[in-house]
Amino acid sequence: MISAIKTIFVLACLTMLGYTLYRGFYQAGVEQQAARNFQTDKYSSTAICEDAWKNELRPAPNVDHFDITLHDGCFSGNIYLPRRFYDHIGSAGFHWQPLDAGPNWWIAIWFQGGWPAFGPFGINQMPDYSSYKPGVFRLQGHGRVRIYTNNDPLEYPEKNITPP
Questions:
Q1: Hey, how many other C-beta atoms are within 10 angstroms of the C-beta on 70?
Q2: Range from 6-20, 28-42, 57-71, 81-95 that averages highest in pLDDT
Q3: Residue 28 has pLDDT above 50, yes or no
Q4: In angstroms, rounded to a whole number, what is the distance separating the alpha carbons of residues 62 and 82?
Q5: CA triplet 126, 73, 82: central angle to 5 degrees?
Q6: Is residue 19 predicted with pLDDT exceeding 60?
Q7: pTM for this structure?
Q8: What are phi and psi of 75, to 5 degrees?
């Protein structure tokens, strides 16, 4: 009787181990396929667009989101987040969401004062930078992205929002 229980237990453990390994390999394959589903032929880790200095973006302090069209091959002008997007009090800061996301959508981000740039990331690979403090960055990619926050604007008086 005890040997039958041991046999059933060992078989159950082997079945669970096999299933876990199968799911792990399957999930890794799905993630690798997602990584191959976007084209980054034009990605450059150092190029800044020639007109970047003309295209800096400073959203109004009271907005809760704004949309950006990404550039293939070069990083955009500086994007200055309103203070409430990155200087958060007990909640997440800023988030991003792909818009019009087709199979070739991708994004890379270069924080001011940071090196190297992060990315490129496909639609299923976007990291969470909601706790990253620098409120200035550049973007590169293909498609459009929405930058948004859920922070309450009343926590940030207007006189303290605009970066230099």
A1: 19
A2: 57-71
A3: no
A4: 8
A5: 55
A6: no
A7: 0.67
A8: -85, 145
Q: Which residue, 140, 158, 152, 141, is CA-closest to 85? A: 152
How many angstroms separate the CA atoms of 59 and 84, rounded?
11
CA dist 49 and 140 (Å) reads: 9
From residue 30, alpha-carbon distances to 23, 24, 25, 124, 163 in Å are 10, 10, 9, 10, 41
Q: Quote the pLDDT of residue 79.
A: 93
Tokens of 114: 């940071």
Q: What is the pLDDT of residue 92?
A: 58
CATH number of 52-160: 2.60.120
Residue 77 pLDDT exceeds 90 = yes
Residue 129: both structure tokens together: 């930078």
Residue 100 in tokens? 């019009």
Domain ranges for the chain, please list them: 1-36, 52-160
Peptide bond into 127 cis (omega under 30): no
Q: Which residues contact 135 (CB under 8 A, 6 or more apart)?
A: 80, 81, 82, 83, 85, 86, 87, 163
